[in-house]
Amino acid sequence: MNTLESGLSDVAADTLMPDVQQAIATLYPGPDVPFNPAAVDAAQAFLTRVQLMQEAWLLPPRLLDPAQSPETQFVGAIILREKIASQFSSLPRADLPAIHQVCLTSLLAAAAQSSRRLVLKLSSALASLVVQAAAADLLGGPLEDPILSTIAMIESARLQNAAETSQSHLCAIANFLLMIAEEYHKAILQSSARQRARAVLLQNVTAVLSTAIALYDPTLHQQLVYSGQLPASVSTQHFNPATLSAQLGPSSDNLRADAAAAMAAWIEYLPLVYSQRDPSSSTVLVIFDILLQALVDPVLLQAVMDHDDAASTLANSATDVISAVLASSPSDVGQQLLPRVASLAPTFASALAQPSEADTVIFLLTNILASLFHAHAGAFVRISTEEELSVCLALVHMLVGCVAIEGCFGRDETVSGAALEPLHDFLYELGDHSDASVQTAISMFAPVFSSLVHAALAKATIPLDFDSWQAQERMAWREHRVQLGELIARLMDVWRMPCLAQINSALVNAVNASLDPTPTDSRWVSVEAALFALKALAESVSSPEIEAAVLELLRQIASLPPLHFRVTFNTLSCFGAFAACVRKDGELLGKVLTTTVNSLADSRLVQAASTTLLRLCNEAGGSLVPWLDQLLDACLTLNQTLEAGDAARAQLHLQQRKQRAALQQHRASVAGSRSTQSTAIAKLRHVQQQHMDWIEVVTALCHVISWAPPDQLLGLTERLAGPCTARLQQLASQLGDESYLNAVLVDADMREALLDTISREFRCLARMCLHIDPAAARQSEEDDEMDGFVNVDGDDDSARLRLQNAYRQSQLQEQQQADEQQRQLRQQQFMQQSLQASQQGAQPVASLVAMTWPAVSAILTQLSRLAAAFKDSALDQEAVDQVVLAGCLALKNALRTVRGGLLEFVPVLVETIEQYHAMAPSAGFLDLACPLLAQFGVVENCLPSMALLVSRLGQTNLSLFATAGLDGHPTVLAGHFSLCASILGLPQLSAGAECWQVLSATFQLACQALPVVQLGNIDPIANFLEKTARASDRSPAVSQLLQEEGLNLTHQLFLSIGGAQPRGAWPLLGKVLFVLAKRLGQSFVQWAAQVLGIEGFPSPHVSEQQKRDFLQQIVRTSAQSTPKQFNSNVVDFGFLCCGFTAGASRTAVL
């Protein structure tokens, strides 16, 4: 191939070759050349760009020359494969035979050199060429029969080469067959093209599988052919499988593994047609039987247990083929395969007897069972004969035996977890049916279910030496125990009362054993395991009968004497899981609350107690009001414990600072310091967990307080919020001390502790503001209006499509009238809420804000000073911003909960946001401004202050972006566009001069930012532009702005889609295009035609005809299709701009 139809010749390739060879030399430097990461990255980027060029079709023949270095040939093979797989449509059809010859010749040369790495990559390239040519209906000439002819040519080359390379050539055949299936699976093709490729592959499936068997074992293949069990393979003058055994003897391990992998790929990736008339069906079943027999060969299994690499590879490959057959076979064929898999039972039992030595064998056999149960679990429901029942019981018993392996998972054994997934599939299949046949099947499996519960309880029993395990082992055991709990829960859905009865029996027996007059320290573990199993059943209480049984069981548990703190922990967890049942029994509820409150004093039980208390409060609600004093006392006691922990934490920080100072003088004490530091970190983590539990307790009590009588509500709120208010005041006082603030600026440990404390108190305040209000505690989730994303657009796009142009003006007037009516209604509702709030008197959130506002305001002031001081340290500034976000969230929750009750705080809030944001811009203040504007932007008296707030925030942000750049403050940038998007939903506010100035400048900023900002900020920008386009119907100012700047916006959108933004941004930008095309109609078409008419824009890879076709598509689909279909066209155009076929994925990096 010397010249392409595009006019490129060898000169183009000769020009590129020196640079390409230099890049390859950079990627693969010699041993004496130092590694240069920057140069390697540059070389890799250069080769990726070269890969996209049309001239790159001329490079592989030169790079794959046997005279080149192995690295150069390998890069040439990569380029060849990626060009074929991703850019086949750019290959001139006249050059297809030449490219095929390059692939085949290079593959034969690589096989002769026994270069396995190069053989694999060239096999992939040749296979991709076959698949792409078949999909494009270009088979003919040298590609008339591409699969069989390639096999024959490789075999011919094998016979002509030295005997030493015979196995290499046969491996090339096996890899070629493997890669055909994989390339067909990975290729992104249209449905018609995929059907053409599949038809070609199905014509050869029998010959391919037969050939793979011949490569796997030539002698066995010959015997099967003579007996008629297997059709003859590719019996041509160049390739006769019957002669392989005589010529070569047994196949090598690599060859057998490659052949098995090829069989697995064809069976898994190519949907086969199983029928008696199709010889491939019988071939597949013969292969299944052969490999199943090979897998139970004692010699092979012993080699696998001896960790022989070749035997393990072969066993894995055989397992893959068997699993592929099971996964792809239809139900009638699967029914035939069940007895064959059940024949593995003796081998499986032998492996389970020595799990530590035979763990690999257990994994292999369990993978086969997993494929069987995943694809054919329905066969276990349709049992009609004793023989079928025997087979199914044997298969399930194999999995239960795997679960019951002796030893602790994660330490003594690691294989029992492999059986859980197929058991889940089995139980899900039984649980999804309720007819009589399934109930009969469930009764048949009762002995198996009983064994499964017994095994699960045994595996879930905590080891006595658990605390001495390594962290990784403890984590693996805990995860396995969670999976066992999920399995028990699923079994409960199927087996119901018998399952509960067996767990009840296990619990009773364990309790009786633990109460023996001479108990041992180890008997509590059985009680703990039974409680864990009972807790797992919480989601399965689906009938009054089960609920009554559970309640009786909970009453017994509530009377248990103290055995061990882990038993108490799981007892609390049980009460929390069954909170819906507990609340129905007043006496039991009292006992549970007493146990829970007492447990709050034990640091080991605080986590379980707080979670249980939260669930009980959510379920019981007003029923817990009589216990409020007791609960509040326990809460305050826990708070005192936390304060003591905070003091200990401060002491630890002081010790650390002293140790670091001592280390600078005494380096010899490094080891001892590390040990002390490790202990300190563990203690700090424990303190942090306790604070998280404290917030859960406060949340739970907020739910209860919200049910209290109105005359007690404010007093209870003050009592609960007292510790938080005191700590906020203390923090404000500390931050007001200049010497303390200077120390915080210098000492990282002090700063971290301070920010953690403030963040915790702000989060606690946010929880109280959200949950303590009586109305908010008992109403459903509000819509997103209070989040600042107000949508008053109100029109139906599908209805709009049916409107004629003659009615557009009348519709606009009606929409404006509706908007005005809605605005007046919202203002009236707001004033009613405000009046109602002032008349009610009992406003706990308003009282809470009044209590804490001075301290919160002072803290936010000092945090803004800290953020300004750390403007050169991104890490420290981000930490401060997170704390500011927590404080703003508390105020945001207060606004959302009280609605009109915070009218008196509006001037102070506006001033605070303006002042602090100007000092240290933060996304938290912008996020707080959104609900503030949404709530008070419809009130006449508040409009001036709201407009001033928008103006000052907008000016601050725009100045910041002008000086620091668009990527300097990404969170502020996103917050600014979200704020402006919420303003567009407030017509009266957005029409003001101050707000409009910000909106118009933000629109200009959005156009400028589209091609250059990071992907994470595209969403808020696109959302703002979309809302702007939607507002054009009801706002003449917005409509005029779009008419003036529409051409620029369209240019930036197409520039971003054409390559300036990555693939993830295209659907977001497509939404903007969709709304523009719908709302602006002919104006948008003119802008798009003008922009796309620029030569080489938005990408040189797109032709003028493709741009015209795309414009017609978006005009047509915007009027007739959904945004999803419209975005599909936009994404396809983006791929075209990048040089790919529509729908193709990006080219793999070298």
TrEMBL record:
According to its UniProt record, where is this protein located? Nucleus
Q: Does the keyword Cytoplasm apply?
A: no
Q: Which PANTHER family match?
A: IMPORTIN-13, TRANSPORTIN 3 AND IMPORTIN 13
Q: What is its main location?
A: nucleus
UniProt keyword Lipid metabolism present: no
- UniProt name for this protein: Importin N-terminal domain-containing protein
Q: Which residues form a coiled coil?
A: none
Organism of origin: Capsaspora owczarzaki (strain ATCC 30864)
Q: Which GO terms describe its biological process?
A: protein import into nucleus
InterPro entries, from UniProt? Answer: ARM-like, ARM-type_fold, Importin_beta-like_NTR, Importin_rep_3
Report the superkingdom from the record. Answer: Eukaryota
Q: Which GO terms describe its cellular component?
A: cytoplasm; nucleus
Its keywords, alphabetically, are: Nucleus, Transport
Indicate the family of this protein.
Answer: Belongs to the importin beta family.
Please provide an example of a Pfam family that matches this protein in its UniProt record. Answer: Importin_rep_3
